[in-house]
Design goal:
214 residues, alpha/beta, 12% strand, globular, binds ligand Z5A
């Protein structure tokens, strides 16, 4: 279906292994059924250059990575992703479904690494201007559960090697953002069976679709 007005920007967030990739596939299936044009993408990444930066960020290395380097690389990838993928798609009237976005920076670099929120906010302003997600689906589950699922699956990347305390701070930062921005956030209990998680996501998506396709 051809869309005329600006598209809707949906981000999916949560700690590792909570089911972001699995449920993004479900979300896009629902958008297909509703005849909505969409782009599905991810961060860090989403363009060839930003995917190169992703590799730099996730690779395990002997050299320790400074917090500022990590923060700036996240926003460098994001700047490219916004200009090449997100803004053009939204301007074309497509919905954008993004696996993580700037709230991941507040959660991981802010909550996890302890970088001050105002530093992150100044880069957010520089790179994004007024661009913010319309909706954020937070898949929330106890950290141990997500990590168990993620670790059963593949070799650990640089982030996945962090301590439980780090991930507890990440989860707490996400839940704090959900409390502060109830209009944007939809929190789903990701510790349920996949069927129940997807029933909850369906309710949220039906609301978005009815609100924006009316
Ligand atoms: N990062 C950052 O620090 N700052 C930033 O600004 C950004 C990112 C943007 C890469 O992210 C890293 O970048 C990430 C944060 C950092 N750190 N880490 N680690 P990523 O999103 O690519 O990586 P990830 O979070 O590790 O994603 P993941 O491991 O692919 O997890 P997921 O997508 O949430 O889960 P999944 O693959 O859909 O599911 C995991 C398994 O659980 C799989 O086998 C499923 O079949 C299973 N599953 C899912 N749901 C269920 C339910 N409900 N029941 C049972 N089993 C389930």
């Amino acid at each position: 279906m051809q869309q005329n007005s600006r598209g809707i920007f949906i981000t999916v967030e949560g700690v590792e292994g909570v089911g972001k990739s699995t449920n993004i596939a479900f979300i896009t299936e629902k958008l297909n059924q509703a005849g909505i044009a969409y782009v599905v993408t991810r961060e860090p990444g989403g363009t060839p250059l930003a995917e190169d930066i992703r590799l730099l960020l996730l690779q395990k290395r002997k050299e320790s990575v400074s917090e500022s380097t990590e923060l700036l690389l996240m926003f460098a990838a994001r700047a490219q992703h916004i200009s090449q993928v997100i803004e053009p798609a939204l301007n074309d009237g497509c919905w954008v479904v993004c696996d993580r976005f700037t709230d991941a920076t507040y959660a991981y670099q802010g909550g996890g690494r302890g970088i001050a929120q105002d530093k992150i906010a100044s880069l957010e302003h520089l790179v994004q201007g007024t661009l913010r997600p319309d909706y954020t689906v937070l898949l929330d589950a106890p950290v141990e559960l997500g990590l168990r699922r993620a670790r059963a699956r593949a070799e650990l990347d640089r982030f996945e090697q962090e301590t439980m305390q780090f991930f507890d701070h990440v989860r707490a930062a996400y839940l704090a953002m959900a409390d502060q921005m109830p209009q944007r956030y939809r929190v789903i209990d990701a510790s349920q069976t996949l069927e129940c998680v997807q029933q909850d996501i369906s309710v949220v998506l039906d609301y978005m679709i009815s609100r924006h396709q009316a």
